[in-house]
Every structure is written in structure tokens, then in C-alpha cells.
Amino acid sequence: MKHVKRLAASILALTVTVTAGHAETVLKLGHVSSPENVYHKGALRFAEKVSELTDGAVTIDALCCAQLGNDVAQAKTVQLGAQDLAIVSSNNLAQFDPKIDIFSLPALFQDIPSAQKAVFGPVGDEIFENFMKTTGMRVIYTTAWGSRAVINNKVAVKTPADMDGLLLRSPGSPVMNATYKAFGANPTPVAFAELFTALQQKTVDGADMSPCDVLTLKYYEVQNHLTTTNLFTGFGMVIMNERKFQSLSESEQEAILAAGREAGEYSWGLTAQCDLDGIAKAKEVGMEVVMLEPDERAVFFDAARGVWDEFADRVGGRDLIDRLVAASQ
Questions:
Q1: Pure H helices in the chain
Q2: CATH code, domain with 157
Q3: How many CA atoms lie within 13 A of 251 on its CB side?
Q4: What are residue 58's DSSP bridge partners?
Q5: For all residues of the chain together, what is the average pLDDT?
Q6: 44: nearest Cα among 217, 244, 238
Q7: Which one Pfam family would you cite for this protein (predicted)?
Q8: Which of 84, 85, 131, 164 maximizes the CB count within 10 A of its CB?
Q9: Number of domains composing the chain
């Protein structure tokens, strides 16, 4: 906690400068990903639109590459009010409000368009409103890592039974661990930074990730098989300290939200295209790619949904889960 307070004290989150006789509000937005990542590209679009919609009265300073700390540390400083905005994965926000972990559940959405339909609708609004009341952090927009696939170097996964005995890398998520145990796989913790080497050295057989990651991080160099299970849809959330949001004028608040809507849709579009590019690259380099049809995917979804009840109380109840799924259809 002392580290967080020192970090919070060291960050100038809201800067007001006077230029040519007018005040300019500069909001700092941080994230941990690279400049080439969807997170940063979306943040730059957000900054562009905020400046445009406020005639330059509000600008966004987008800082990539963990310049302001890891995503949990940044979320804490946003909550404290010492940082204005951050992009943080939904699973890492669960320690602030366990209910936001609803987005970590498997087999919620068939694909990115269905996920957008749910997240941008009334049920998504309800979840984000409750998150704001609990944490003091407003979700300005969401982005995505992509619809997840299973990659491995042993077998073409066409049915859940094909995962039996596979050592699949786990990020330590209880939900993901329970899901893959339901298929007979053995979730094995490996830090993301060490994953390429672990796959290369066959410490693990495979992993769960988006085709976009397969492309951008070159996992196609060390894996033979890719199956589009779509079991998980990874979410990034752009959070803003609510007190800072309320300190802006009404027109500035409207501009922030409008810019967020556009940046969110832009980011999701980039992710969807990157997933398609990742699948194309996997095929090009000779990976065996299994594109599951909806009826084939349903078998995986039915097995994965068996873990919902284990986590339902944590994420707001089975009724909320069912409403979120229904909103995606």
C-alpha cells in the first residue's frame, strides 16, 4: 500500500495549463501494452476525438508500456484519484469488485459481434453502473483482446475430449482453471512473459489465446494446431476516476462519453480484423487450423457452462449471467 501511495503521489493526474489565454485540461491515460497494441491504438483514437469534440479544451495524454505501473497499480491510482484513466483487463479489476469477473466466465458469447451486442446494451450498462458505485471508477469504454482459441503442439482439437491430458498454460484464473479441468486438461501456471519459451521448450503443450496474439507474438513458430473454440472473450476496460469525471463540465462529460463510444467500436473492429489476420497467418505457415462451426462449438460451450454455478454468487447471480447471454443473441 505504501508503494501505491508513493506512486499515486508521484503522478500528476490532472494538469491544467494556461495557453493563449484559455485553460486546457490534460487527462493522463495509462496502460501496460505496446504502441502497436489495440489498447494504444484505441487510446489514440479516443484522444483524437476528445480533443475534437471539446475544441482542444480537454486533451488525453496516452502513455503506453507500463510507464505508470502495472495495470493493477494503475487501477489503484485511478481509484485514489491520482491518475485519471487507465486501460485494465477485466479479470484484474475483479479484486476491486468481484462482480466484474462475470466477463471472465466461459461460453458467454459466440463471437465478437455478439459480445459487443451484450456489452453495449442495457445489461452491460447495468454491470458497469454497479461497478462504478462499488469502486468509484467509471467505465468509459471497452476494448477486447479477441475471441480465444486453443493452440497446442500435440493434437487437432475438434471435440472437448481431444483436450484430455493436455498441459495448457493458465494465467492463474480460477475460472479458466475450472473450465479446462472440465475438459480433462491440466491447467499449468506460466507467466505471460515466459509463455513463448515454455511452448518452445514444451514445458506446456499449449495455451488459450486469441488468434491475434498468435499473429502478433508469433506463437505460430512454436505451435502446430489452432482451434477457434471462442470459449472466452478477453475484455479491456477504460476506467476513469468518477470524481474527476464529475469535475468536468457537462459538455466535457458528454464529449468524453461520445469519444469513448467511437474509440470502443474502433478498438473492437481492430481486434476482430486482427483475429482474422491471425487465422490467415496460421494457415499460411502450416498450422492445422480447426474452424469450429456453431453446432460444433456448442458441445464445448455446454461443457464449459457447467462451471457457471460454481462462480455465480461471485459475479452477481445466475440470473445476471443468463441475462447477459440473452442480450448477446
A1: 2-10, 38-53, 71-80, 90-93, 112-119, 122-135, 174-182, 195-200, 211-216, 242-247, 250-284, 294-304, 308-315, 318-327
A2: 3.40.190.170
A3: 8
A4: 25
A5: 92
A6: 238
A7: DctP
A8: 85
A9: 2
If asked whether residues 94 and 135 sit together in one domain, one would say yes
Burial of residue 121, with CB atoms counted within 10 A of its CB: 0-12 exposed, 13-18 middle, 19 or more buried: middle
For position 77, what pLDDT does the model report?
A: 98
Residue whose grid cell is 453446432: 295
Q: Is the pLDDT of residue 11 over 50?
A: no
Q: What is the pTM of this model?
A: 0.87
Q: Indicate if the pLDDT at residue 154 is higher than 80.
A: yes
pLDDT value for 58: 98
Q: Which residue(s) pair with 18 in the sheet? A: 23
The domain in which residue 127 lies consists of: 2-145+234-275
For the residues 7-12, what does the mean pLDDT come to?
Answer: 45
Helix (H), strand (E) at residue 60? strand 58-63
Question: Which band of pLDDT confidence, cut at 50, 70 and 90, is reported for residue 1?
Answer: low
Contact between residue 203 and residue 166 where contact means Cβ atoms under 8 Å apart: no
Hey, CA dihedral for 204, 207, 211, 214, is it positive or negative? negative
Nearest to 29 by CA among 57, 55, 67: 67
Question: Quick one: cell of 277?
Answer: 489476420
What Å distances lie between residue 231 and 38, 196, 302, CA to CA? 21, 22, 10
Residue 224 pLDDT:
97
Residue type, 132: M
Q: Based on the domain organization, do 126 and 35 belong to the same domain?
A: yes
